[in-house]
Amino acid sequence: MLKDITRRQFVASALSSAAISSLALSNGSAANAAIAGDLTSSPRQDAAAPGADQFSSWHDQGVLNLAKSPYAKLHSVPVRAVTIETGFWSARRDATVAQSIPTMHDLLESHGRMDNFRRLVGKSNAPQVGAVYSDSDVYKWTEAVAFTLQSGDRPELHKTASDIIDLVVSVQQPNGYLNTYFVGDRAALSMTPETQQSGHELYCLGHMLQGAIAYYRATGDRKWLDAGIRMVNDFLLPSYGPAPKLPIIAGHPEIEMSLVELYRLTGDKRHLDLAGYILGGDARIHVPPQANIYLFCGTPFTERTQIEGHAVRAMYACSGAADYYLETGDPAYWKTLNVLWNSMAGSKMYVTGGLGARAQGESFGAAYDLPNASAYAETCAAIGNVMWNWRLLAATGDAKFTDVLERALYNGVNSGMSLSGTLYCYTNPLAFDPSAGITIRNPWYSTDCCPPNFERTMASLPGYFYSTASDGLYVHLYDNSTLDWHLEDGTGLKVTQKTNMPWDGDVEITVAPAQPTDFTFYLRIPGWAGDGTRVAVNGKPVTGAMAGTYLPIHRHWASGDVIQVRFPITPQPLSANPHVADDEGRVAIQRGPLVYCLEQLDQPTDVDLTDNSLAVRMKPGAEFTSEVREDFLGGIVVLHRDGVVTESHSPASKGGPAALYGPYQDQEANSRNSHTVQLTFIPYYAWANREPSPMEVWTPVAKV
Amino acid sequence: MLKDITRRQFVASALSSAAISSLALSNGSAANAAIAGDLTSSPRQDAAAPGADQFSSWHDQGVLNLAKSPYAKLHSVPVRAVTIETGFWSARRDATVAQSIPTMHDLLESHGRMDNFRRLVGKSNAPQVGAVYSDSDVYKWTEAVAFTLQSGDRPELHKTASDIIDLVVSVQQPNGYLNTYFVGDRAALSMTPETQQSGHELYCLGHMLQGAIAYYRATGDRKWLDAGIRMVNDFLLPSYGPAPKLPIIAGHPEIEMSLVELYRLTGDKRHLDLAGYILGGDARIHVPPQANIYLFCGTPFTERTQIEGHAVRAMYACSGAADYYLETGDPAYWKTLNVLWNSMAGSKMYVTGGLGARAQGESFGAAYDLPNASAYAETCAAIGNVMWNWRLLAATGDAKFTDVLERALYNGVNSGMSLSGTLYCYTNPLAFDPSAGITIRNPWYSTDCCPPNFERTMASLPGYFYSTASDGLYVHLYDNSTLDWHLEDGTGLKVTQKTNMPWDGDVEITVAPAQPTDFTFYLRIPGWAGDGTRVAVNGKPVTGAMAGTYLPIHRHWASGDVIQVRFPITPQPLSANPHVADDEGRVAIQRGPLVYCLEQLDQPTDVDLTDNSLAVRMKPGAEFTSEVREDFLGGIVVLHRDGVVTESHSPASKGGPAALYGPYQDQEANSRNSHTVQLTFIPYYAWANREPSPMEVWTPVAKV
């Protein structure tokens, strides 16, 4: 760890630059206060949210620290406040911590990502490897460790992360700059207008800040955070921003949300303002129109009218803009955020919560352009979907955002890591045929963004279960867990969930305030629950549960109170909007929050998913049966339902392969040659955990 | 025009290079004979086909000169031998000659494609513009003019082409090299292993040779042809080929077929051998595996097992390989050609004859991966499909190749130029929604390969109507036309077609040999004709017409003999192989050789093609009606049939936009809210000739 004196020398060195000294000095006292003092005691320059002081120590800060955010209706609880106990998510988080994080560490090592840093301080002779954004892989991995440590110390993991952080910090240059790619011969390219579009320098910085903040919140150790602040305060702020400073844009959005989160920690309004400046675009850097769409930068955020371009970039920009709104309440941002959310959730999101229809540019397609087999649906984009909706939920308490968050989390994010914890999806298609030769889960990608992104998301998951508000507590996710926290008035509060969700719908919630007190318990009724949710408190029914809302239960709560909830967890065939051509005449099966799929391996031998002669029987009378299989794919509920296989009606052919086109034969003729089969559906997240096999989410409907 | 003395000086200059002189001299006498003498009197080094001598003068050579090709069963007739009279194809060829060719000339000028040549001889100061393959645009345009001139001189067009050829030839370097891109600073890149993969030098040479040969066959003028031979004989042959020469591959196949055609003209076996060498791959240039697929080069042609990669490259390579087979009879080539053809025609071809499912890499997808809206189906690839099948047809006389040729020609090629003759499709999707903002027909593309490729195909079209064989005449295409040619025994023969094909199925064919003689008239019965074809000679029925074959009519033909044919031109709904997911539950309508489509503009106001609530009614009793509309889209037959519009079953939504996903509603519920509409189909080739409008070829089938 660098000592303060060394750090101050760096600052002095940076300030000695005549070209930037006047700019730097104009904010110098605030900057130095932020660096030198107790971060949380820095004066906030906007009104603090009432009663927020008790959230002010590092170990009380959540995934986002919204305690003082004036436009946050909901406030995060720290990751450590929630313990996920044995159940659905514990299996996934345990696999992340026990398997994914250590094996990914070794892969980052063996692929030279750590040596990129060591080389710069003379500890390695290995050449630079990996693309411009490779530093961010290390940062996201370390952030995942940090979130793990927020749930309790793990000395070995802690030491590994600490050593990596020491290494990272050791390569920081005297002027605050820290990046392993734009050094040496490439230093001249740093922060040029072109590099700002393609070089990912600010993207890497953003991930470093997020990692550093998570590590600080885990340990109280500021060594990495201080390095991040130095790069912002010493390198970035003095030189980049509105004229006469140099122009600044974010070719891959990420810096915006990290700067706002830094502001939440430092109270230094320059951090918020720079985020806002970047979101506003900088006309001095000309971004060509197509790049403007792809990069999701260039155009002022508030001038965008649809979700488009590179899906991860778009999600990160929207997350940053939502963060900016949470601090500023800027109505233009709020309007645009809603327009873009409607564009996404209403026309450009897969039923798995996956985003990005096109491999080309890893990008959104046109409205309703949601092909299944060629879906890109990058794991990082689904994670971005969670991040964005978490912020919109904080701003509003509106359960429609939780519904989307949950859809992405349980399906399009959750599919991103194998049950073993060692293999990852980069893309998450909704139909798959292995005969094309593509391996869908791999231990490593040359662009290895998704695996550590999944890890940090899973490690931080306890922080997403609850929020507080001025009048009570919101519960967002249901799984075996305990909350040990307090209401915003300071009253201690423990909440325990006992449930087998999402496999069945009963949840018993024990509410135990430190002393009896009035507050509202906001119970999320998921959008998939329809009209079937039953709620009782201490055995007495509570009415008003409406799907897609939070049911407010206001009462004088006392220790021993129990909320009994029964959600209708039943298989539900979904249709897509008829504009979605690829889903036409097809259904997707959802059961609770889980989207299901067919994998070839589970079907009878006469069923061929790659042949469209198969359909699921949807006529009245056909029913699903659910089967609990604890020994299968980590323990799941499989679904069975009758399907129909129609004899292949391949056009007649004069020998050779079956003809590609031939006279149409009517349905009646085919239906004479159909037979019933039993189809078996598994949760989408569990696919591709056995040998390669065809898969489909949207299954044709048999209408005969 | 360069004088012979100048040309010989070039040759001498090339031969003076010590490094290559021994190689050059070893074949020098043959080469010089080919250059200096009557080309057609050069001794052929393989057995000449019997009775081929009368085809030997330049004006008697067809699109391909197969007169002496030992493995050609069919032989081309010259373009000039067939006159297309007023009817279906005359309208398209007239638009090509009157509109497309002159306007494309001006666009090639205004986009600097001619100045690229002028600059090199000091006649322009304009910088080089366009990609590495830009020379080929000029060559294909000039080839289109040459084929036009084969049908009769047009002095103004002739002069324009002649001037361009003079310009082209004037930039040829003393060593024979001719390319406007790899000159000056870029000369060092010429023919490096990397440039051979990506630089298109041999691709441009191939197009120059094809253009030069067409111009020679139109005019007897050898000025361009001699330049092409110089580049082959002086630049290429001495230095590139098997060790110890330098390695050679074709990163964009094209040179192979042009070298074989050059061999057919020169009789210089080195030209054939070099084509074979390139087709065999050159292991000394390492082509990475993915590039090997994309480029369709690297792997020996005879080791390929499926059609894949860049569709145009694949078609050109297959055409070259077919040409090589026609000369050599190599059974390994024949086997591979059939494997690849089955792969294409059986699983990777659109119903329009279009090829290339994917925009990424302009490439084939996996087997049965034939998406409609995102179909790439480049016009050039459909043209390549025609070229390849023309060669396979020549090798066999098998009508299955003509069926594919016709499918591509009438649909996927024909759609490539607007009715006006001034706008072009680069991609030819089978479904389209203009709301994505894509303009489907444009006057110019920065990669302007398709427009002049369409022009040269259309200009050469008369050459595709007939072939001769040792025992008679084959008719491939039906349209108003006259053939004025002779049988292979030299007997003069005129054949006249009077028909309204493809709008109705009656064809009256007058057969008039110069004197009564025995031969077989091979009458093509198209694959689409089913069992319904009726044939008579002089009013007397001829039996045995079988769809997808040539009906041999052997008799003692005499002037005044008439063949009356009635093809069953009726609308036919086609199904696709059930493995084609995008066509599942849908039909495409074909009538004769024409594939039809729905354009939004022609439908009732309550029909929305972008909404899947529309289906064509296929239950028994629903019938097509055909309507002749001479004033509409250049004169077409439109088709009408009942369709069904189902009330949109968009998932319910709580305000805001319609929900993207919602509970499935069964078909019976929807069918209560459906109503009948009259759908109007137009030929696919005629789409996108009005304001932008949604279109679809494959229409859902209403089963209720």
Task: Give an account of the 3D structure.
Two copies of one chain form a homodimer. By secondary structure, chain A is of the alpha+beta class. Chain A has 19 helices and 25 strands. In chain A, the strands form four sheets. A seven-stranded antiparallel beta sheet of chain A has the order 2-8-9-10-15-12-13, with no helix packed on it. A six-stranded mixed β-barrel of chain A has the order 17-18-23-21-19-25. Chain A has a five-stranded mixed beta sheet with strand order 1-6-7-11-14, with no helix packed on it. The termini of chain A are far apart. At the A-B interface, helix 15, strand 16 and strand 22 of A face helix 15, strand 16 and strand 22 of B. Strand 16 (571-576) of chain A pairs antiparallel with strand 22 of chain B, so a sheet runs across the interface.
Name its key features.
homodimer, 704 residues, seven-stranded antiparallel β-sheet, six-stranded mixed barrel, 19 helices, 25 strands, 18% strand, globular
What's the tally of helices of chain A? 19
Strand percentage of chain A lies at 15-25%
The oligomerization state is: homodimer
> Tell me, what's the shape of chain A?
globular
**Spatial order of the strands forming the largest sheet of chain A:** 2-8-9-10-15-12-13
What separation lies between the terminal Cα atoms of chain A? Answer: 71 Å
Biggest beta sheet attributes of chain A: 7 strands, antiparallel
Class of secondary structure makeup of chain A: alpha+beta
Radius of gyration of chain A equals 26 Å
Residue runs with pLDDT of under 50 for 5 or more positions of chain A: 1-55, 652-657
Helix content of chain A: 25-40%
Look at the structure and give the mean pLDDT of chain A: 89
DSSP summary, beta strand count of chain A? 25
The most extensive contact between chains is: A-B, 63 and 63 residues
